[in-house]
Write a structure and sequence with these properties.
The complex is a heterodimer of chains A (about 290) and B (about 400). Chain A is an all-alpha fold and about 290 residues long. Chain A has helices at about 5-35, 40-60, 60-85, 90-115, 140-160, 165-175, 175-180, 185-205, 220-230, 235-255, 265-275; strands at about 130, 135-140. In chain A, strands 1-2 form a two-stranded antiparallel ribbon. In chain A, α1 runs antiparallel to α10 (about 235-255), α2 (about 40-60) runs antiparallel to α3 (about 60-85) and α9 (about 220-230) packs across α10. The longest helix of chain A is centred in the first third of the chain and has 32 residues, at about 5-35. Chain B folds into 2 domains: about 25-155 and about 305-360, Response regulator (Rossmann fold, 3-Layer(aba) Sandwich); about 155-285 and about 370-400, Rossmann fold, CATH 3.40.50. Helix content of chain B is about 45%, strand content about 20%. Chain B has a 7-stranded mixed sheet, sandwiched between helices. A 5-stranded parallel sheet of chain B has the order 2-1-3-4-5, with helices on both faces. In chain B, a hairpin with an 8-residue loop joins β13 and β14 (about 385-390). Classes of the chains: A mainly alpha (about 290), B alpha/beta (about 400). The interface of A and B includes residues 127, 251 and 255 of A.
Chain lengths: ~290, ~400
């Protein structure tokens, strides 16, 4: 196997991993800060893809990248209002209600956009290939990696260097103390939820030109997100980042060297981590 | 009478009347004189391939509307009763039972391949004539039920067309990528086994599968390109194929590798690409709306009219052929009695947009010709069409001797 081909496979894996990170990061923020496992995130991802499809027909891909996730975040804000009673409920309630909301959104997407095949056109300069070690590599995947990398860096900066990030970290560490300090925790929860949904929306928009846009695929996306979170640690953003890259790269090389096992790779990784380190690679043991 | 006795009598009366109503609704479906003839349609109106409904239901409705406009069948108007199986095999039997309960005398459908077997089993158990366009393999024909007829090209025939199409140019190797559904596995199995037997010098470089609702193919495409096959076979259809095509175009796959696929000229997919569909993909087709024959062009005009401007699709053609078959069968039989109708449909020929087609009595398979087409553009159509076409006919299908031998071997 030529070095160029291995590098191509590696880059494809990194690209896939970065998208997984964006999706999983949104869930991780919501779980860490609000203690709510948001099973609607897969539906929000698909909603982002559909927004990209609609907006790119009227405007262009770049406006879709800007406004699509914002539109999804608005829907997320509305969803958060419905989910407020869950904050103090057990995980079973959260599971049931968020799954129910997911199916509602999926059916809504079906009703609004229909089941026809949807194709998103890209600008010509993204719809080309770039030579890497003698092989033509899709420019769009390079763009995905760059955009996701910028997002990841932006997330780190936001959490570490901004006041909002500091408040988010405080909520994650000790919610009650933040409440006692007089900050409006309800408003902060809404912002946190919308932010997490916005990340999924961005992932959806980035993937729309290459993935099949089908509302029924939302649950498969959710499974991918959950796999990354279980491997990395549900409440760990750093864990989500590294786990996403690990899953992406292993998936990519798995298709090359273990084709008979390819479909099972994510589940196998999850099982191995659960057996060895149940809290995830970067998660902390609770209790 | 005391309260408890009254309650007991009331409950007994409710139970008895419920049983009576159930037995009436589950009756064999004979209609009272003067009533309409009810034809049941089980279809995937929702689910993974629900998007193909608008390519199939309008032409089914059109065919029956024409029958009713001409006076109906056997002196009665025809009423369609439709049930949605949602693309779920486990829902098929229940929906068919509902159709029987509504008084349907024959069933059209189901639509999806995986739903074909439960439907066939139900039809055999309930002795209901069934004209199905769910794809099926040769082994499904081995114990060919008397009352079941097939208007989807046999899986093996489609795979045979693809096999011949692949070998129309010299190749040394091939690779397969597909969604994990029955049709794709059957197709791949047929091609791989036949290639191994007849052309062992042609190397099978491997196969990769993803789930039905998984549309991320970049890893697989990159892997396939690393293996450098002469031919890449895609076993995806509908949204899966659209996703594959989008991703493959990013890798310039269609310019570098010969790609063959099934349903790649399905208009539900080509329409969404407009003028940006990949050219040079070789695929099977049995709704070649670019064909200049009068029968086909008349069908295209009708299709455009009833489906709000959509061009015909392969699956829609299967449904239309099934409808024409059932109409011709009832006319020929002069009855909706299951045995008479089934006997009439064996060895029956009837006119279709693809020419005069016929059922054989030994396998009840409609001998649908299959075109091996190469995607491209023509100034006459706003979406991708087959620009180079080879038409395969009856010789794609197994012979009577082959079916008989298989039947004998299975006993």
């Amino acid at each position: 196997m030529a070095a160029g081909q291995l590098l191509c496979q590696f880059i494809v894996g990194i690209g896939g991993g970065m998208i997984l990170f964006l999706m999983a990061a949104g869930v991780s923020i919501i779980v860490s800060g609000m203690n709510v496992i948001n099973f609607v995130q897969g539906a929000f991802f698909m909603l982002g893809a559909l927004m990209c499809y609609s907006l790119s027909q009227v405007l262009n891909f770049w406006w879709a990248l800007l406004f699509g996730p914002l539109a999804v975040a608005c829907v997320g804000l509305f969803a958060e209002l419905l989910l407020r009673p869950l904050y103090k409920k057990t995980m079973l309630y959260q599971l049931l209600i968020t799954m129910g909301l997911a199916f509602l959104i999926i059916d809504g997407m079906d009703a609004v956009w229909g089941r026809e095949v949807k194709v998103v056109a890209l600008p010509d300069y993204l719809n080309t290939t770039t030579p890497i070690l003698g092989l033509d590599f899709p420019m769009y995947y390079v763009f995905i990696i760059a955009a996701s990398g910028v997002m990841a860096a932006g997330l780190w900066l936001m959490f570490e260097k901004t006041r909002l990030g500091m408040i988010f970290r405080a909520i994650i560490t000790n919610r009650s103390m933040v409440d006692c300090l007089g900050l409006n925790v309800k408003l902060l929860f809404s912002i946190m939820f919308a932010f997490g949904v916005w990340l999924s929306g961005i992932a959806g928009v980035l993937m729309a030109p290459i993935v099949g846009i089908d509302p029924e695929g939302s649950m498969d996306m959710l499974f991918s997100m959950m796999t990354v979170l279980v491997i990395g640690g549900i409440k760990s953003m750093k864990g989500a980042f590294f786990a996403a890259l690990i899953v992406g790269v292993i998936n990519a090389f798995g298709s090359l060297f273990l084709p008979w096992f390819y479909a099972l790779i994510p589940a196998a990784l999850m099982i191995i981590v659960l057996l060895i380190r149940p809290q995830g690679l970067f998660g902390k043991k609770e209790g | 009478m005391c309260g408890k006795s009254l309650l007991a009598v009331f409950i007994a009366a409710v139970m008895v009347s419920t049983l009576v109503l159930c037995s009436v609704s589950m009756s064999s479906g004979a209609t009272a004189p003067g009533e309409a003839i009810k034809i049941g349609i089980i279809h995937s109106l929702s689910g993974p391939f629900g998007m193909l409904t608008k390519y199939s239901m309008p032409v089914i409705q059109m065919a029956w509307d024409r029958v009713n406009a001409a006076g109906g069948l056997l002196g009665k108007q025809v009423q369609l009763v439709v049930r949605d199986d949602q693309g779920d095999p486990s829902a098929v039997a229940q929906k068919l039972t509902e159709l029987k309960g509504e008084g349907c005398v024959a069933i059209l459908g189901p639509f999806m391949g995986a739903n074909g077997r439960p439907a066939t089993q139900w039809a055999v158990a309930n002795k209901m004539p069934l004209v199905t366009y769910a794809s099926a393999t040769l082994m499904d024909r081995v114990n060919c039920p008397k009352n079941v007829f097939y208007t989807c090209p046999l899986e093996d025939a489609r795979a045979e067309a693809m096999y011949r199409g692949m070998l129309s140019r010299p190749i040394k190797s091939y690779f397969f990528i597909g969604n994990d559904i029955v049709d794709s596995h059957d197709m791949y199995g047929y091609i791989a086994n036949k290639m191994k037997k007849e052309h062992p010098e042609i190397v099978n470089l491997g196969d990769l599968w993803v789930g039905l609702n998984v549309f991320e193919f970049s890893n697989l495409i990159s892997t396939a390109m690393a293996k450098k096959p002469d031919v890449l076979i895609s076993g995806s259809a509908g949204p899966g194929w659209a996703a594959f095509a989008q991703q493959a175009m990013k890798f310039n796959l269609f310019k570098k590798t010969r790609v063959v696929a099934t349903y790649a000229l399905e208009t539900a997919v080509t329409k969404s690409f407009g003028k940006n569909y990949p050219e040079g993909v070789e695929t099977t087709s049995w709704a070649p709306y670019w064909d200049k024959s009068k029968a086909m062009q008349d069908y295209v005009k009708d299709h455009l009219k009833v489906s709000d401007g959509l061009y015909p699709a392969d699956k829609g053609m299967e449904c239309y052929l099934g409808t024409l078959a059932l109409i011709a069968g009832i006319k020929k039989a002069g009855s909706v009695d299951p045995e008479t109708l089934s006997a009439a449909m064996e060895n029956m020929s009837f006119d279709t947009p693809l020419g005069t087609l016929h059922f054989n009595n030994y396998d009840h398979q409609l001998k649908i010709p299959i075109w091996w087409s190469t995607t491209g553009y023509s100034k006459d159509f706003p979406l991708a069409v087959g620009v180079k076409n080879i038409k395969y006919g009856d010789d794609l299908y197994p012979t009577k001797e082959q079916i008989t031998a298989l039947r004998a071997a299975s006993r």
